[in-house]
Every structure is written in C-alpha cells, then in structure tokens.
Amino acid sequence: MTLAAEIWTTLSKINVNENIEKKGNLSYLSWTWAWSKLMEHFPDSYYHFEDRKLENGTVEVTCILSIHKGDQSVSRHMWLPVMDHKNNSIINPSSRMVSDAKMRCLVKAIGIMGLGLYIYAGEDLPAAEKERIRIEMENAMVDEKQSETLNDLIKDTGTDADKFCEHYKIASIEMLPLSQFEQAVTMLKTKLQRMESDS
Length: 199
What we know:
By secondary structure, this protein is an alpha+beta fold. The longest helix is centred in the middle third of the chain and has 18 residues, at about 95-110. The protein has eight helices and five strands, in the order αββαβββαααααα. The chain is elongated, with a radius of gyration of 27 Å. α2 packs parallel to α3 (about 95-110) and α6 runs parallel beside α8.
C-alpha cells in the first residue's frame, strides 16, 4: 500500500462528529484537534503557508501539507480566501483574520488527506462508519419483544416453528436477523388474516 493510500484509508475512517464545532451556520473542526489527530497517526507531518494579496485588496492563503513515513512523502495543498462569517472575502484583512484563515486552511488540507472530508460534502458520517453501521444492522437480531411478537403470531397461525426457522435459515426464533423482522411479521399477519376470513 502506498503512503497516500495508507493516509486516506486511516484518516477517512475517523468519525469526527463529536469534534465538530459550529460558527453561525458553518461546521468546522478546530485546527488543534485536527492537527493532534493527524499527528497521532502520522507524526512526521509538517505544513507551511503562502499568502497573496489580490488587486481588489482581498487575500488568499495557501497551505502546503506534507506527510512523511520512512522514505515516502505525500504533499497536498489547499487554498482559502480570508472571509467573514458570511463567507464573503474581506478587503484589507487584519493579520488576525489572515492567521485564522491559515489555520482553517490547514484543517481543509488535512481534510483532503481524508480527515473529516465528509463534512465538506454535507454528509453526517464517514463512508467507513456508514458501512460499519450497515453491517451491524445486517447482523443484528430481533430483540426480546420482537421475538415474543413472532412467537405469538406463529402460535396464532398454527405455523410450524421448526419450518419457520428452516425457511429463514436460523436455529431459533431469537436468531432472526432484524433486517427480516418486518417481512416475517407481514407474512404471518397475512396468513392470520386469510385464516380469519376463511373461518
């Protein structure tokens, strides 16, 4: 695996939701947290900034982020205008405004390496976390109350419990995957309705 792939795989899996801060309607990560998290995984990292003043008096900052591991190195650069809280460029910004923009740009550069990139995409969870939740949901089994519901319906419909389990390839009712619960209930309720209408 290349260093670039390792960086992306490592950072893009991290759920940053508990560390998102809000300023107005904007979501962001603090540069101290983002840098600390990067250093946990890739301590041989460094950055530097460049900035340029445009003819209209606005300023654009650029962050060059480099990560090293052994004899491999990966660099990415990101840019950001110095903006106010409404995301409008500031004419003749103060040194404090430029400094704040640089640190936001650093976080953005860390983001394109993978950490919290989904924030910029408007997603609520990283892809790896969504996949983990999907797998957990697939592997989750019915709870006690759902198991009781199924047992009651099986009894009321005179369904053979062993055949029910065989149909769903499970050893017992309690092992029915949660993802199949609604379908099983619908099937049993339909059978019950047919029985009631025939009687």
